[in-house]
Design brief:
By secondary structure, the chain is α/β, with parallel strands linked by helices. 30% of the residues lie in helices and 27% in strands. Bound molecules: guanosine-5'-triphosphate and magnesium ion. Keywords: GTP-binding, Initiation factor, Nucleotide-binding, Protein biosynthesis.
Length: 332
């Protein structure tokens, strides 16, 4: 699930609220410069969402969030992040509405046909707002003055209007019957957590449906993923931060990775996983594991990864013909 939107509209803050971290504060100039990945387990989701997500209703292990940068210079990263995901959250600051990178994100989602919802963020900045920490949106609405409510509605209708100008019909999410033909708009605050239960509820519902119908991740097959970053790690040399979106990868597997010149064929020496709720980008402690199944963020240590490139495909060869897999990687 990718998080897209204009610079400073609150993508990283929203994820920080969900995973209970402060990645945004640690960023240079508070600007995200890389794609990140965080696995949020089902019990964290249901803790935050309260009665809106009952764990027994879902057979998903949780949600994998992919954070992207909003600054205009990171267009390829946004495009890559958008293409990786099955579902996207378009974050729009209610005070700022649509901005250039919001438009760009919409184009990416259109092009890739990725279903998305809109998180209308920073509702706490509405004049006269009476914050209700962590409350679902209906509950916090009830606590607002008529004036604050209509101020917010005005801003939300502006976003709905912008979406309509681009050919998307949308509405407040609680009025949306079919999320495939209608974009749900979820008012949220990354600061106070208001509306986050609703956001998680909608995302879980959408993911569950997609898992059942079309995604049908084949966890048993050979792993497929995309390189987020190539990083030096002490004791391991060049390693890859990867989003594994299909299949399984195991220590000892032969993999093919897209490189600066030619595809790299190498053998997985170690698989390192960030802890649950940790951002792979900033995590310092990793657990060494024998295998990882999709969808997940994983750090791969292997020889000869110096020439690997961010955005390149990663494929486990498995019992397939090596040359065939090399050709597949070359073709991407
Ligand atoms: P880039 O990654 O650079 O594109 O930015 P971003 O979209 O990740 O935004 P980020 O989360 O870094 O937030 C930008 C600023 O907005 C920070 O100062 C946040 O504290 C602030 N902010 C984010 N969400 C909210 C919110 O819901 N309410 C208020 N009042 N401020 C917010
Ligand atoms: Mg960010």
């Amino acid at each position: 699930m990718a998080v897209l939107g204009h610079v400073d509209h609150g993508k990283t803050s929203l994820l920080d609220k969900i995973r209970g971290s402060a990645v945004s504060e640690g960023e240079a100039g508070a600007i995200t410069q890389h794609i990140g990945a965080t696995a949020v387990p089902l019990d964290t989701v249901s803790q935050m969402a309260g009665s809106l997500v009952k764990p027994e209703d879902f057979d998903l292990p949780g949600l994998l969030f992919i954070d992207t940068p909003g600054h205009h210079s990171f267009s390829t990263l946004r495009s890559r992040g958008g293409a990786l995901a099955d579902i996207a959250i378009l974050v729009v600051d209610v005070n700022d509405s649509f901005q250039p990178q919001t438009e760009e994100a919409i184009d990416i989602l259109k092009r890739t046909g990725t279903p998305f919802i809109v998180a209308a963020n920073k509702i706490d900045t509405t004049p006269g707002w009476n914050p209700q920490e962590g409350a679902p949106i209906q509950k916090t609405y009830e606590e607002q003055s008529q004036r604050a409510r209509s101020k917010l509605d005005e801003k939300l209708y502006e976003i709905i209007g912008e979406l309509s100008d681009r050919g998307f019909s949308s509405d407040f999410y609680w009025r949306v019957q079919n999320f495939q033909s209608n974009i749900g708009v979820v008012p949220v605050s990354a600061l106070t957590g208001e509306g986050i239960p609703d956001l998680l509820g909608v995302l879980m519902g959408l993911s569950q449906r997609y898992m059942k119908d079309e995604m049908a991740i084949d966890v048993a097959g050979p792993g497929s993923g995309t390189v987020l970053e190539v990083k030096e790690e002490r004791g391991f040399g060049a390693t890859l931060d990867v989003v594994l979106y299909d299949g399984t990868i195991r220590a000892g597997d032969t993999i093919v990775v897209g490189g600066a010149n030619n595809p790299i064929v190498t053998e997985v020496r170690a698989l390192l996983q960030p802890r649950p709720n940790a951002e792979i980008r900033t995590e310092k402690r990793f657990d060494k594991v024998d295998e990882v199944g999709a969808a997940a963020g994983v750090k791969i240590a292997a020889p000869d990864l110096e020439d690997a490139m961010a955005g390149a495909p990663v494929r486990v060869v498995g019992d397939r013909d090596l040359d065939e897999v090399i050709r597949e990687v070359e073709a991407e």
